[in-house]
Amino acid sequence: MKTIEELYNEVMASEELKKEFLTLKPEEIESFAEKHGCKATFDEIKAFLTEKSTASGELSDDELEQIAGGKMKPDDVLGSVITFGASCQKW
Q: HEC states along 53-64?
């Protein structure tokens, strides 16, 4: 079985998995993880994503530049969506 981090890295490396993940409803996240070889609860996945988004607490120079310049790469968009969903949505 994959860890949540292994699945996260796999999703971040695959345009197809990113698109699939972005269409998920919160109640579908556990099934998505299991389908891709990771047995984890929604709460475990949410905690991982929340920790991932707040690990450093600071933005890198590159992230600041992207925000200031209005440019984001696809990976950044997925990270933002995941972070927003995990941190802000009430489940």
A: HHCCCCCCHHHH
Q: With contact defined as beta carbons under 8 Å apart, do 6 and 48 qualify?
A: no
What count of Cα atoms within 13 Å lies in the side-chain half-sphere of residue 84?
Answer: 7
Structure tokens at 83: 């972070």
pLDDT tens digits along 37-82? 999 999 998 888 878 776 655 556 665 665 555 554 545 545 555 5
**Could you tell me the maximum CA-CA distance found in the chain, to the nearest angstrom?**
40
Candidates 18, 10, 35; CA nearest to 81 is 18
Instruction: Identify whether the C-beta of residue 4 lies closer than 8 Å to the C-beta of residue 44.
Output: yes
Helices (H) and strands (E) in the chain, counts: 6, 0
Any alpha helices (H) in 13-73, and if so which ranges?
A: 15-22, 29-35, 42-54, 61-69
